[in-house]
Design a protein that fits this description.
Layout (H helix, E strand, L loop, with lengths): L1 H47 L1 H8 E9 L2 E4 L1 H11 L5 E11 L5 E13 L5 E14 L5 E5 L1
Parallel strand pairs: 1-6
Antiparallel strand pairs: 1-2, 3-4, 4-5, 5-6
Helix pairs in contact: 1-2, 2-3
Length: about 150
């Protein structure tokens, strides 16, 4: 009986370690997906502007907080950027940290950003800070932000 328990213990230990290895690979794959979507989001902001980028990557109930208000939904977020942005403004960012839930349906990132504006004299002004984004996998498998 003792011998059977020993075999059972090692079998369970082996199966558990195999499952953890598979899970680790999944998490790393999902982190790579988030890194790629952050890059595409940033690139779209450079190519088409903030309004289109934020509207494209917002989840149906995604929110941003601006001017002390929460703005919800892709259209409202895009409209806010269209109405508030000034010519020459740019925003660039890159995540320094990415984490994904063990189920692979939620993730968050944070990192540095640079917001560039042009003042009344035509001089560029750069403001730097830290961003934080929460991502949710959508039913179609794509990642969209729910908080930015």
């Amino acid at each position: 009986m003792k011998k059977n328990n020993t075999y059972l213990f090692f079998l369970l230990l082996f199966l558990t370690s195999c499952n953890q290895s598979s899970h680790t690979k999944d998490v790393e794959k999902w982190k790579a997906e988030i890194r790629a979507v952050e890059k595409k989001f940033n690139d779209l902001a450079q190519e088409k502007g903030l309004a289109i980028a934020f509207e494209t990557y917002a989840a149906p109930k995604g929110v941003i907080r601006k001017g002390g208000k929460v703005i919800q939904g892709p259209k409202a977020i895009g409209d806010w950027y269209r109405n508030d942005s000034r010519p020459g403004e740019t925003l660039t960012w890159k995540p320094d940290f990415i984490d994904v839930s063990s189920s692979g349906d939620l993730a968050y990132t944070y990192g540095g950003y640079v917001f560039t504006t042009i003042d009344s004299t035509g001089a560029k002004k750069e403001n730097t800070g830290t961003f934080h984004t929460v991502w949710k996998r959508q039913p179609d498998g794509n990642w969209k932000f729910v908080w930015d």
